[in-house]
Amino acid sequence: MLVSYKWLSEYLDLSKISAKELSDKMSVTGIEVEGVEVPEDGLKKIVVGEVKECIPHPNSDHLSICQVDIGEEELSQIVCGAPNVKAGIKVIVALPGSRITGNQKIKKGKMRGEVSNGMICSLQELGYSDNVIPKAYSDGIYYLPDEAVNGTDVFPYLDMDDHIIELSITPNRADALSMRGVAYEVGAIYRQTPSFNDEPLMEDMSETASDYIDVEVMDTKDAPAYQIRIIKDVKIAESPLWLQNRLMNEGIRPINNVVDVTNYILLLFGQPLHAFDYDKLNSKKILVRRGNKGEELVTLDGEKRELSSENIVITNGDIPVALAGVMGGADSEITDGTTTVALESALFDSLSIRRTSKEFNLRSESSSRFEKGINQATVGEAGDVAAAMIAKLAGGTVVSGKSVGSKVTLEEVNVSVTIDRINEYLGTTLNEAIISEIFEALGFNYSFNNGEYTVTVPPRRWDISIEADLIEEVARIYGYDNLPSTLPKGETVAGSLTDSQQLVRKIKGLLEGSGLSEAISYALTTEEKSSQFMMRSSEATKLQWPMSEERSTLRMNLISGLLDDVLYNTARKNSNVGLYEIGRVFYKNEDEAQELPYEENHLAVAISGNQTIKDWQTKETPVDFYTVKGILEGMFDSIGLKDVVTYEAVNDYAEMHPGRTALVKIDEKVIGFVGQVHPTIAKEYDIPETYVAELNLQAIVEVSGHSFVYQQVTKFPAISRDIALLVDETVTNQALVETITMNAGKYLQSVHLFDVYQGANIADGKKSMAYSLTFVNSEATLVDEEINQSLTKVEKALVEQFDVSIR
Q: Which residues does the record give as Mg(2+) binding sites (predicted)?
C-alpha cells in the first residue's frame, strides 16, 4: 500500500510531524514501513515552459524546433522529437545542467545542426513507470495545466514533492489498504480524530434508479451486498491534474474522469467499484449469478475468457458483462461516448474471487481487497461519494436512490477483556485511565465495570474478534518499545534429546562419516516423481492451487528428490556424488480420499561416480551395489541392528535394476530397499549410473530401543578355520552365513566371506565361496577337537540344506 503524505495531511494535522517520523512511528506500532520515497529526489533544474513557436526541423522528418518561454527575457530554443509537441502548450523543461532520471545530465548542444538549450521531457524521463502514465502521453511529452507559471519548478504541479510511504500490509490488517484506514491508524498513534472532506451527494428527485435498472442477486452468499447508482448526462474527459497526480503517485494509470473516480474511491475507502456504460448494457436488468459452462466474456484487457461455475459474473439479465470483483467486460466499458453511468458498489465472496483471479491470472487491486476483506459498513457510502464526485467532475446528475439487489445487516461485535488480563499478557501495570485513553484514541466505544472492559468494535476493524486482539491493540498504541524488558523467572529445566532424536543425530554422523553430505529437497514435486520408488501403495496428495506443476504433489519417496540433486551436481562437473536425506513422505489411504495424509519419516541415500579417485598408488574404483550396501551395514552395526537386519534380492521394483536390488528387512518386516536405479529411469533423470537406498526411519527407531551389552576382552587366543564351498549360484551368502552361525556352536565369534569364484574349473551354474570362521572361548583356551566338532556340524548342515561340496 502506497500512502501519500500530502493526501493523509488532508485528514489529520501532520504539520509538526515529518514523513520520516511518521514512518518510524508506524513501524513500531504494528504496520511495517518498507520505505519513504520522494519522487523529485535526484532531479534538479526542471521547470515549467511554454511552447511559443514550433516548426519542423529542416534536416529531420521527426524533429521539431521549439521556441520555449522558461520565464526569462528571451525565448529558449529546444529541439524536440516528441510527436505531440505543438505551439501553445505548457511543458516540462530540463534546463542545461539539469539531472533527469537515471542521474542523466542534460547539456546544451546541437541536434542535426540546430542549437538545443535543454530538453522538453516526458513523464518517463522524470522517473514515472510506463504503466502509470496516461495513454495520451505514453509516447510523447506531458502537457501541464495552463495555470502553471513559466520558469517555476515543475515538481509541485505534479506532486513530485510529496512523500510516498510504502506500507507492508499483513493479511490481518486489510483495513490499512485504504487511506481512511491509514488515517484512523495514524490518528490513534497521535491522538487525533481524522476529518474527511467527502463530496456531498446531490440527487435529482425527478427520477429514481429503479426507473433505469432492476438488480437481482441469485445467491446472497456470492454477493452479500450489491447496489447500483445511476449518473446521467456525464461528459467523459481527462481528470483534473490533482486526481491524475494522486493516482500516478499511488501506482495507478489515469484513464478518464469516471474511471479515475472509481480508482480514487478504491484507494480512499478500500472499496472496489465498477462503472458500466448504461446504454451498452442493452437491458434494464442486472443479474448477479454464477457463470455457465461454455459462456464467454471479453474482459477489458481484450482477452476472451471461458467461464465456469466457479466464477461469479455480472450479467444484463442474459449475458455476462463483467467478472465480479476482478475485471469488467469490454462491451460495457466507459468510453468517450458514454453519457449515462451505472455505478456498481458491492461485496463479493472472497474465496470465489480468489479462485477466479487465480484461474484467469488476473490479479488486481480490486480482487486483492475482496480477498482480504472489505469494510461492510461503507459499501453504500463509498458508492455515494463516488457518484457525487463523478457528477462534479463529469458534469452529470445523480439519479435519486439506488437499485439494491442485496444488503448486509451489520451485527454489533462486542469483545471483553479485564485490566488484569491485559497486564498479565504484557507484563505491565497499566491502569484504567491509560487503557481507556487508548480505546478512545482507537475510536472504540466501551463500557467499564468491575475491572472489565466491554469494547464495541467498529466495522472498519473486522480483524478484531477475541480478547487477544484487544490486548494487541493496547500493546501497539501504548508502544511495544514501552513494554518492560524482563528476564524469565523461575526454575529452569535442562533440555535433552529424546531417544529418537539421539538416534537420528547418530545416524547423520555415521552417514557423514561414510563420506555422504546431507541434502534437503522440496516436499512438493510432480505427480509422476511422487509415485516413483514407493515402499507401499498410496493415493497421491495434490494441492488444489499449486504454484506450478513441478510443485503440485506431496512426495511419497525421498529418492526422486536426491536424483534431482545428483543431476544438479553432475551437470556442473561434480561427478562424484554422495548424498543422504532424512525427511517425511506423505501417504494417503486409497479408500479415504478426503483424509489428511499420513506422514512417515524416511532415510534415503544416493551415490554416483567413484568411491576412490585415481592417484599414484590407487586405482579408480566406481561405486557399486556393495558400496551403498556397505554404508547401510556400517550404520546398522553402529546402532546395534546388524544381527537383525537381512537382505533379500528382488526384481519387481520398476524403477530399480532387477539384478542389483534387494529388500532390507528387520525380523522379516520390509523396512526399505537398496540397489541401482534402473538405466531407463537414470536416462529420464539424465544422470549416470547411480545407487540408492530408502529406509523407513520410523521403523528403525521403533526396534532400536535395546541397550548395548559390553563384554570384557578375552585373554585367551582366537582360532580361525577356513572352509571353501562349491554351491549353486542361486544360493545367497546370507543363507550360508545363517546356517554356519546356527550350527557352529557358542564359541563362533565371526564369519567372514573372503573369496567368491566362478570361471575355469567350476561347473556352470556353480560358484565357489570361501569363508573364514573365528572361534573364541572367553574362559579357556580352545583345543582342536572342539573346533573340529563345530566344523563337522557346519559341513553336515550345509550339505543337507544346500547340497554343497566341501573343497
A: 463, 469, 472-473
